[in-house]
Design goal:
Blueprint: H1 31-49, H2 62-74, H3 95-104, E1 114-115, E2 127-133, E3 139-147, E4 157-165, E5 172-178, E6 182-189, E7 196-203, E8 209-216, H4 219-224, E9 229-233, E10 242-251, E11 260-271, E12 274-286, E13 290-295, H5 297-305, E14 312-320, E15 323-331, E16 340-346, E17 349-353, E18 356-357, E19 360-361, E20 366-375, E21 382-390, E22 400-407
Antiparallel strand pairs: 1-22, 2-3, 3-4, 4-5, 6-7, 7-8, 8-9, 10-11, 11-12, 12-13, 14-15, 15-16, 16-17, 18-19, 20-21, 21-22
Helix pairs in contact: 1-2
């Protein structure tokens, strides 16, 4: 996403209010579709009066929207109970379909598995939360917080913090890892070693952003905020900014100075000497010294084919059902914060995701997606943990960091 992730502070643009895309006039070819729309329209006045009017998501097909609205009317799309696991619909039995269902079918508040506008025990917002299991029990998570001024002001700052949670929903801050000009963090345990690697977006004194890496020798060092080594990766492919890193792999080889670290990130393109849409890239850092970046033209092309010609930003790689997956954010229109979308990449096939509840779509613009399998809070099996940032939630008070998990 446009650096530093969920707002483009270099241009100091304030996100627009949400827009609901009109369905428009078209010829209905299936009788069930007409019936579904009639049922949905009959329910809209009462739903609107109660403040829970169903919504169609931007880019959602007419058929999918009608199905969701009619389900809301009939009560078929009610929230799962806390004890039950979400069951994929009959047409979603493949790994891709099951994964999409787990992400799209947002649990309701009474399950205890979801948090809107998530904040820590200090009341600080927890944007771009990236969680991982705490070896001592529970979970740890890194996140960034905006502070210092009202949204959109030039003096707004960002800091990165570390917090602990027993249930993935309630978080207690442990340490501030970088107090100024730091955003978009991700952290990973180093395979075969007791250390951790933190990657994030750092604003330099020049006002430009780069990707910064920090190495922590042990978990205790991470909890205390004591890093043993730090490396700022030089900008590449862009005279402006790099950012939104993701850690793809780490080969340790006995020491940080003999390691091989694979990263993903975005770079801000240039159009006639001015900042243009963000584009994707990957790179290899050898021995914590030699940096070799590469443009990811194939991913940019796939996102373009999906109709997302704006910025291509934050993304994460994760494992599910024994396979590797990626989840991306991208815009349909450059520099328009009302057009952020989230997509699931399965072997180069970009499938758009729509977050839905019993009342319809959750938000008209969504970004900064993170999905990963982790141990369940009750110790029974695993859950898929999903975090995203809602730029324009349909329900008042729900914009901000969305956190939820699904039993798998």
């Amino acid at each position: 996403m446009l650096t530093p992730g969920w707002l483009n502070w270099r241009r100091f643009k304030t996100p627009p209010s949400h827009m609901i895309r009109a369905l428009g006039y078209r010829r209905y070819r299936c009788r069930w579709l007409v019936v579904a729309l009639v049922l949905a329209s009959l329910a809209l006045p009462s739903a609107s009066a109660s403040g829970s009017r169903p919504h169609c998501a931007p880019g959602q097909s007419l058929r999918a929207c009608a199905t969701g609205l009619s389900a809301s009317v009939s009560g078929a799309n009610q929230c799962q109970s806390t004890a039950s696991s979400p069951a994929p619909p009959p047409q979603a039995q493949t790994s891709a379909g099951r994964l999409a269902s787990l992400i799209e079918d947002v649990p309701c508040p009474d399950t205890g598995r979801i948090s809107y506008d998530t904040s820590d025990d200090h009341g600080d917002s927890m944007a771009v939360l990236d969680s991982f299991p705490d070896p001592a029990g529970g979970y740890l998570g890194v996140y960034h917080t905006a502070f210092g001024a009202q949204l959109g002001a030039k003096t707004l700052e960002f800091r990165i913090s570390l917090a602990h949670s027993a249930d993935l929903i309630h978080w207690t801050r442990i340490a501030v890892l970088d107090p100024l000009g730091a955003s978009m963090p991700t952290v990973g345990a180093i395979p075969g070693a007791p250390g951790y690697l933190l990657a994030y977006e750092k604003r330099l004194s020049s006002g430009r952003n780069i990707v910064r890496l920090r190495y922590y020798r042990t978990l205790s060092d991470l909890l205390a905020g004591r890093f043993a080594a730090q490396r700022d990766l030089p900008r590449c492919f862009s005279p402006f900014n790099n950012g939104t890193p993701t850690i793809l792999s780490v080969r340790w080889n006995g020491a940080i100075t003999r390691s091989v670290i694979e990263l993903g990130f975005h770079y801000e393109s240039a159009i006639k000497g001015r900042p243009g849409p963000d584009r994707e890239a990957t790179g290899t850092l050898r021995d914590f010294r030699a940096w070799s970046p590469r443009m990811d033209a194939s991913t940019d092309a796939a996102l373009d084919r999906a109709g997302l010609w704006g910025s291509h930003g934050d993304w994460r790689a994760f494992s599910f059902d024994g396979a590797s997956w990626r989840i991306y954010e991208a815009q349909t229109s450059f520099n328009d914060f009302g057009t952020w979308r989230v997509l699931l990449d399965s072997s180069g096939q970009m499938d758009p995701l729509t977050l839905n509840t019993a009342s319809g779509a959750v938000s008209s613009s969504i970004g900064n997606p993170v999905a990963q399998a982790e141990p369940a809070p009750d110790g029974q099996g695993q859950v898929l943990v999903v975090t995203m940032f809602l730029f324009a939630a349909y329900t008042p008070g729900q914009s901000g960091e969305l956190v939820y998990y699904q039993p798998i």
